[in-house]
Amino acid sequence: MTYKWFFAPLLAFFVFSIWGQSAEIPSAFSIGGDAQLHRLSTLPVSAVLQVKFSQENVQYPMDIALFGNSISLPVVPSELLMSGQNAFNFAVPGTSFQSSVTLLQSLLEEGRQIKLAIIQVDNFEAINVEQSPWPRGPVRMGLLISRIASGLTEPRIGPDELLRMVWRSIKSEAIIFAGFFNIQKIWAYLAYRFPNWLPSIPTSTLPYSVDGSLPRLEITVPRTHELLSSHGAMLPGYFAKDLGRVAQLSTMVDRIVLVEMPLEPTSAAYYVYNPTLQGAQFRGMFSRICNQLDLECHVAPISGDPGQPNFWADETHPSAQWLAAYLRQIILSEASRKRALQP
Q: What confidence tens digit (pLDDT) does each residue in 73-87 have?
Protein backbone atom coordinates (compact mmCIF):
# COMPACT_ATOMS: atom_id res chain seq x y z
CA MET A 1 0.00 0.00 0.00
CA THR A 2 2.99 2.29 0.56
CA TYR A 3 3.63 2.80 -3.15
CA LYS A 4 0.06 4.07 -3.58
CA TRP A 5 0.73 6.85 -1.08
CA PHE A 6 3.84 7.68 -3.08
CA PHE A 7 2.18 7.84 -6.52
CA ALA A 8 -1.13 9.40 -5.47
CA PRO A 9 0.39 12.87 -4.73
CA LEU A 10 2.33 12.72 -8.01
CA LEU A 11 -0.82 11.90 -9.95
CA ALA A 12 -2.73 14.69 -8.21
CA PHE A 13 0.10 17.12 -8.93
CA PHE A 14 0.12 16.14 -12.63
CA VAL A 15 -3.66 16.55 -12.96
CA PHE A 16 -3.51 19.89 -11.17
CA SER A 17 -0.67 20.99 -13.46
CA ILE A 18 -2.63 20.05 -16.60
CA TRP A 19 -5.62 22.03 -15.34
CA GLY A 20 -3.48 25.03 -14.45
CA GLN A 21 -1.77 25.13 -17.83
CA SER A 22 -4.67 24.08 -20.07
CA ALA A 23 -7.72 25.86 -18.65
CA GLU A 24 -8.86 29.20 -20.02
CA ILE A 25 -6.40 31.97 -19.14
CA PRO A 26 -7.80 35.32 -17.96
CA SER A 27 -7.12 38.23 -20.32
CA ALA A 28 -4.51 40.70 -19.13
CA PHE A 29 -5.61 43.29 -21.68
CA SER A 30 -9.05 43.99 -20.22
CA ILE A 31 -10.20 46.46 -17.59
CA GLY A 32 -8.72 45.61 -14.22
CA GLY A 33 -5.96 43.45 -15.64
CA ASP A 34 -3.03 45.57 -14.41
CA ALA A 35 -1.73 42.86 -12.09
CA GLN A 36 -1.72 40.32 -14.92
CA LEU A 37 0.11 42.74 -17.21
CA HIS A 38 3.00 42.73 -14.73
CA ARG A 39 3.10 38.92 -14.72
CA LEU A 40 2.37 38.07 -18.33
CA SER A 41 6.06 38.00 -19.29
CA THR A 42 6.65 35.16 -16.81
CA LEU A 43 4.29 32.82 -18.70
CA PRO A 44 5.48 30.48 -21.48
CA VAL A 45 4.96 31.34 -25.14
CA SER A 46 1.81 29.23 -25.57
CA ALA A 47 0.09 31.08 -22.73
CA VAL A 48 1.04 34.54 -24.03
CA LEU A 49 -0.29 33.56 -27.47
CA GLN A 50 -3.58 32.46 -25.86
CA VAL A 51 -3.89 35.66 -23.82
CA LYS A 52 -3.28 37.85 -26.85
CA PHE A 53 -5.73 35.82 -28.92
CA SER A 54 -8.48 36.29 -26.34
CA GLN A 55 -7.72 39.93 -25.44
CA GLU A 56 -10.72 42.22 -25.09
CA ASN A 57 -9.09 45.64 -25.06
CA VAL A 58 -9.43 46.45 -28.77
CA GLN A 59 -12.66 46.80 -30.67
CA TYR A 60 -13.18 45.05 -34.00
CA PRO A 61 -12.93 45.71 -36.85
CA MET A 62 -9.30 46.48 -36.06
CA ASP A 63 -7.46 48.95 -38.26
CA ILE A 64 -3.92 47.60 -37.72
CA ALA A 65 -2.68 44.33 -36.19
CA LEU A 66 1.06 43.76 -35.79
CA PHE A 67 2.44 40.20 -35.62
CA GLY A 68 5.99 39.12 -34.82
CA ASN A 69 8.36 38.30 -31.97
CA SER A 70 10.67 40.21 -29.63
CA ILE A 71 11.82 42.46 -32.48
CA SER A 72 8.33 43.91 -33.08
CA LEU A 73 7.08 43.53 -29.50
CA PRO A 74 8.22 46.99 -28.23
CA VAL A 75 6.48 48.86 -31.09
CA VAL A 76 3.70 51.04 -29.69
CA PRO A 77 0.70 50.53 -32.02
CA SER A 78 -0.45 54.15 -31.67
CA GLU A 79 2.70 55.22 -33.52
CA LEU A 80 1.43 53.38 -36.60
CA LEU A 81 -2.02 54.94 -36.63
CA MET A 82 -3.88 57.72 -38.29
CA SER A 83 -6.39 59.70 -36.22
CA GLY A 84 -9.41 57.68 -35.14
CA GLN A 85 -7.89 54.26 -35.83
CA ASN A 86 -7.32 51.36 -33.42
CA ALA A 87 -4.56 48.78 -33.29
CA PHE A 88 -3.03 46.00 -31.20
CA ASN A 89 0.44 44.46 -31.01
CA PHE A 90 0.05 40.66 -31.25
CA ALA A 91 3.81 40.01 -31.24
CA VAL A 92 4.98 37.26 -28.86
CA PRO A 93 8.65 36.76 -27.91
CA GLY A 94 10.28 33.51 -28.95
CA THR A 95 7.97 32.82 -31.89
CA SER A 96 8.52 32.68 -35.65
CA PHE A 97 6.69 33.39 -38.89
CA GLN A 98 4.65 30.19 -38.60
CA SER A 99 3.23 31.21 -35.20
CA SER A 100 2.31 34.66 -36.52
CA VAL A 101 0.43 33.18 -39.47
CA THR A 102 -1.35 30.68 -37.21
CA LEU A 103 -2.41 33.44 -34.80
CA LEU A 104 -3.72 35.64 -37.63
CA GLN A 105 -5.58 32.69 -39.14
CA SER A 106 -7.18 31.83 -35.78
CA LEU A 107 -8.34 35.42 -35.26
CA LEU A 108 -9.90 35.57 -38.72
CA GLU A 109 -11.59 32.20 -38.31
CA GLU A 110 -13.16 33.58 -35.10
CA GLY A 111 -14.75 36.27 -37.23
CA ARG A 112 -12.54 39.11 -35.99
CA GLN A 113 -12.19 41.65 -38.75
CA ILE A 114 -8.73 43.11 -39.39
CA LYS A 115 -8.18 45.79 -42.03
CA LEU A 116 -4.35 45.75 -42.11
CA ALA A 117 -2.13 42.94 -40.83
CA ILE A 118 1.62 43.51 -40.65
CA ILE A 119 3.60 40.29 -40.25
CA GLN A 120 7.25 40.34 -39.26
CA VAL A 121 9.64 38.02 -41.12
CA ASP A 122 13.01 37.52 -39.43
CA ASN A 123 16.02 38.62 -41.45
CA PHE A 124 16.99 35.85 -43.85
CA GLU A 125 20.53 35.74 -42.47
CA ALA A 126 19.13 34.82 -39.05
CA ILE A 127 15.77 33.19 -39.66
CA ASN A 128 14.42 30.20 -37.78
CA VAL A 129 11.25 28.17 -37.67
CA GLU A 130 9.65 26.48 -34.71
CA GLN A 131 6.53 24.42 -34.24
CA SER A 132 3.89 26.81 -33.01
CA PRO A 133 3.02 25.83 -29.41
CA TRP A 134 -0.47 27.24 -29.90
CA PRO A 135 -3.40 26.56 -30.08
CA ARG A 136 -3.15 24.22 -27.14
CA GLY A 137 -4.46 20.69 -26.79
CA PRO A 138 -6.23 18.67 -29.51
CA VAL A 139 -6.48 21.63 -31.90
CA ARG A 140 -2.70 22.02 -31.98
CA MET A 141 -2.22 18.29 -32.46
CA GLY A 142 -4.58 18.35 -35.43
CA LEU A 143 -2.66 21.24 -36.99
CA LEU A 144 0.62 19.49 -36.27
CA ILE A 145 -0.45 16.25 -37.95
CA SER A 146 -1.79 18.20 -40.92
CA ARG A 147 1.48 20.11 -41.23
CA ILE A 148 3.56 16.94 -41.19
CA ALA A 149 1.20 15.18 -43.61
CA SER A 150 1.49 18.06 -46.05
CA GLY A 151 5.13 17.07 -46.47
CA LEU A 152 3.93 13.91 -48.21
CA THR A 153 1.92 15.82 -50.83
CA GLU A 154 3.69 19.17 -51.16
CA PRO A 155 6.20 18.92 -54.06
CA ARG A 156 8.41 21.66 -52.58
CA ILE A 157 8.97 19.62 -49.37
CA GLY A 158 11.57 16.89 -49.81
CA PRO A 159 12.09 13.75 -47.67
CA ASP A 160 14.97 15.30 -45.74
CA GLU A 161 12.92 18.36 -44.86
CA LEU A 162 9.95 16.20 -43.85
CA LEU A 163 12.13 14.14 -41.50
CA ARG A 164 13.56 17.31 -39.95
CA MET A 165 10.03 18.60 -39.38
CA VAL A 166 9.00 15.31 -37.73
CA TRP A 167 12.02 15.46 -35.43
CA ARG A 168 11.35 19.09 -34.52
CA SER A 169 7.72 18.24 -33.80
CA ILE A 170 8.68 15.39 -31.47
CA LYS A 171 11.19 17.62 -29.70
CA SER A 172 8.76 20.52 -29.29
CA GLU A 173 5.98 18.27 -27.96
CA ALA A 174 8.40 16.71 -25.48
CA ILE A 175 9.31 20.18 -24.22
CA ILE A 176 5.63 21.11 -23.86
CA PHE A 177 4.91 17.85 -22.00
CA ALA A 178 7.88 18.40 -19.68
CA GLY A 179 6.42 21.79 -18.84
CA PHE A 180 3.57 20.08 -16.99
CA PHE A 181 6.13 19.01 -14.38
CA ASN A 182 8.04 22.30 -14.24
CA ILE A 183 7.45 23.90 -10.84
CA GLN A 184 8.43 27.37 -12.03
CA LYS A 185 5.97 27.26 -14.96
CA ILE A 186 3.17 25.95 -12.75
CA TRP A 187 3.81 28.71 -10.23
CA ALA A 188 3.86 31.32 -13.03
CA TYR A 189 0.40 30.17 -14.17
CA LEU A 190 -1.01 30.20 -10.65
CA ALA A 191 0.52 33.58 -9.81
CA TYR A 192 -0.95 34.99 -13.00
CA ARG A 193 -4.41 33.57 -12.25
CA PHE A 194 -4.41 34.66 -8.60
CA PRO A 195 -2.34 37.86 -8.49
CA ASN A 196 -3.87 38.99 -5.20
CA TRP A 197 -3.03 35.74 -3.45
CA LEU A 198 0.36 34.61 -4.75
CA PRO A 199 3.66 36.45 -5.27
CA SER A 200 5.00 36.67 -8.82
CA ILE A 201 8.16 35.09 -10.16
CA PRO A 202 10.83 37.81 -10.24
CA THR A 203 11.41 39.20 -13.74
CA SER A 204 13.69 41.88 -15.12
CA THR A 205 11.26 42.86 -17.89
CA LEU A 206 8.92 45.83 -17.82
CA PRO A 207 5.16 45.12 -17.67
CA TYR A 208 3.13 44.75 -20.85
CA SER A 209 1.07 47.71 -22.00
CA VAL A 210 -2.67 47.44 -22.67
CA ASP A 211 -1.94 47.85 -26.40
CA GLY A 212 -0.06 44.52 -26.42
CA SER A 213 3.44 45.99 -26.61
CA LEU A 214 6.20 45.18 -24.12
CA PRO A 215 8.53 48.15 -23.54
CA ARG A 216 12.22 47.41 -23.93
CA LEU A 217 14.90 49.13 -21.88
CA GLU A 218 16.13 51.45 -24.62
CA ILE A 219 19.78 52.19 -25.27
CA THR A 220 20.54 55.72 -24.07
CA VAL A 221 24.18 55.93 -25.19
CA PRO A 222 24.95 55.05 -28.85
CA ARG A 223 27.35 52.17 -29.37
CA THR A 224 28.95 50.12 -32.13
CA HIS A 225 28.17 46.48 -32.86
CA GLU A 226 30.01 43.38 -34.01
CA LEU A 227 29.23 41.57 -37.26
CA LEU A 228 26.32 39.16 -36.87
CA SER A 229 27.27 35.53 -37.38
CA SER A 230 24.76 34.25 -39.94
CA HIS A 231 22.60 31.47 -38.57
CA GLY A 232 19.21 29.94 -38.98
CA ALA A 233 17.40 26.68 -39.47
CA MET A 234 14.48 27.54 -41.73
CA LEU A 235 12.94 24.79 -43.86
CA PRO A 236 12.34 26.22 -47.35
CA GLY A 237 9.41 24.03 -48.33
CA TYR A 238 7.49 24.79 -45.15
CA PHE A 239 8.32 28.48 -45.45
CA ALA A 240 6.84 28.46 -48.96
CA LYS A 241 3.78 26.67 -47.57
CA ASP A 242 3.30 29.38 -44.94
CA LEU A 243 3.50 32.06 -47.63
CA GLY A 244 0.71 30.16 -49.39
CA ARG A 245 -1.33 30.27 -46.18
CA VAL A 246 -0.90 34.04 -46.09
CA ALA A 247 -2.18 34.27 -49.67
CA GLN A 248 -5.30 32.35 -48.66
CA LEU A 249 -5.88 34.67 -45.71
CA SER A 250 -5.47 37.76 -47.89
CA THR A 251 -9.05 37.28 -49.12
CA MET A 252 -10.24 37.92 -45.53
CA VAL A 253 -8.13 41.04 -44.85
CA ASP A 254 -8.09 44.35 -46.69
CA ARG A 255 -4.29 44.36 -46.73
CA ILE A 256 -1.52 42.06 -45.49
CA VAL A 257 2.08 43.30 -45.46
CA LEU A 258 5.07 40.99 -44.92
CA VAL A 259 8.19 42.83 -43.73
CA GLU A 260 11.66 41.31 -43.46
CA MET A 261 13.35 42.77 -40.40
CA PRO A 262 16.61 44.71 -40.95
CA LEU A 263 19.97 43.92 -39.43
CA GLU A 264 22.14 46.42 -37.59
CA PRO A 265 23.82 48.52 -40.34
CA THR A 266 27.29 46.96 -39.98
CA SER A 267 25.91 43.46 -40.52
CA ALA A 268 23.34 44.61 -43.10
CA ALA A 269 26.01 46.26 -45.30
CA TYR A 270 28.25 43.20 -45.09
CA TYR A 271 25.57 40.69 -46.10
CA VAL A 272 24.35 42.86 -48.98
CA TYR A 273 27.69 42.18 -50.69
CA ASN A 274 28.44 38.82 -49.04
CA PRO A 275 25.10 37.00 -48.70
CA THR A 276 25.19 33.48 -47.37
CA LEU A 277 23.67 30.66 -49.40
CA GLN A 278 20.78 30.54 -46.94
CA GLY A 279 20.17 34.28 -47.06
CA ALA A 280 20.25 34.44 -50.85
CA GLN A 281 18.02 31.37 -51.19
CA PHE A 282 15.31 32.57 -48.85
CA ARG A 283 15.33 36.18 -49.99
CA GLY A 284 15.01 35.04 -53.62
CA MET A 285 12.23 32.62 -52.67
CA PHE A 286 10.47 35.34 -50.70
CA SER A 287 10.48 37.77 -53.62
CA ARG A 288 9.56 35.15 -56.21
CA ILE A 289 6.64 33.60 -54.29
CA CYS A 290 5.33 36.99 -53.19
CA ASN A 291 5.18 38.00 -56.85
CA GLN A 292 3.52 34.74 -57.84
CA LEU A 293 0.89 34.98 -55.10
CA ASP A 294 0.41 38.75 -55.43
CA LEU A 295 1.52 39.41 -51.84
CA GLU A 296 2.89 42.72 -50.60
CA CYS A 297 6.36 41.93 -49.31
CA HIS A 298 9.33 44.07 -48.31
CA VAL A 299 12.94 42.97 -48.00
CA ALA A 300 15.09 44.55 -45.31
CA PRO A 301 16.78 47.92 -45.94
CA ILE A 302 20.15 49.10 -44.66
CA SER A 303 18.96 51.26 -41.83
CA GLY A 304 21.95 53.50 -41.07
CA ASP A 305 25.69 54.05 -41.46
CA PRO A 306 27.80 50.88 -41.11
CA GLY A 307 30.34 50.98 -38.32
CA GLN A 308 28.85 54.06 -36.65
CA PRO A 309 27.46 54.11 -33.10
CA ASN A 310 23.68 53.75 -32.92
CA PHE A 311 20.83 52.87 -30.57
CA TRP A 312 20.28 49.23 -31.61
CA ALA A 313 19.91 46.78 -28.70
CA ASP A 314 21.93 44.18 -30.60
CA GLU A 315 22.55 42.99 -34.18
CA THR A 316 18.88 42.08 -34.80
CA HIS A 317 16.88 44.39 -32.50
CA PRO A 318 16.51 48.03 -33.64
CA SER A 319 15.11 50.72 -31.41
CA ALA A 320 11.33 50.58 -31.14
CA GLN A 321 11.05 54.17 -32.34
CA TRP A 322 13.04 53.50 -35.50
CA LEU A 323 11.08 50.33 -36.31
CA ALA A 324 7.74 52.06 -35.72
CA ALA A 325 8.75 54.89 -38.07
CA TYR A 326 9.85 52.38 -40.72
CA LEU A 327 6.60 50.41 -40.50
CA ARG A 328 4.55 53.61 -40.60
CA GLN A 329 6.41 54.64 -43.76
CA ILE A 330 5.44 51.32 -45.35
CA ILE A 331 1.82 51.73 -44.26
CA LEU A 332 1.51 55.24 -45.68
CA SER A 333 3.58 54.84 -48.84
CA GLU A 334 1.52 54.41 -51.97
CA ALA A 335 4.51 52.79 -53.63
CA SER A 336 4.46 50.03 -51.02
CA ARG A 337 1.09 48.90 -52.30
CA LYS A 338 2.87 47.71 -55.44
CA ARG A 339 4.82 45.04 -53.50
CA ALA A 340 8.12 46.92 -53.22
CA LEU A 341 10.55 44.04 -53.20
CA GLN A 342 13.75 46.04 -53.44
CA PRO A 343 15.38 47.65 -50.36
A: 999 998 998 767 889
